[in-house]
Amino acid sequence: MPPPVNPEPVGSVTASAALTATAASKAFPPAARISSPASLAQGLALELAPIRFNVVSPGIIDTPTRAAMPADARKAMLENVAKSLPVKRVGLAEDCAGQILLMLRNTFMTGSVVYIDGGGLLV
Question: Which residues in the chain land under pLDDT 70?
């Protein structure tokens, strides 16, 4: 990848915020949420400037953190989620990693949120 355009970048933070913070549900009522990913990104971008602050908000990502689930239950859950998404699959760590690298390298990006959810917010 090419180097950043700005030859003297100040720094960058990219956080991951749960997609559950974007919509109310019985499991995550608004009062239980600290902040939406957008509020987090925008507030910290202003507070930390000139350090850039961005947020990646993933949907269901198949990572080793789900290894504690029984294999059959994990497989069934991931298949059900995949069927419900427009892209017909769950995410992989690589799907998030590329976006995080872009956010770290793009010196003109701050206060932004990118939802990596396979279209989950659309359905």
Answer: 1-9, 19-35
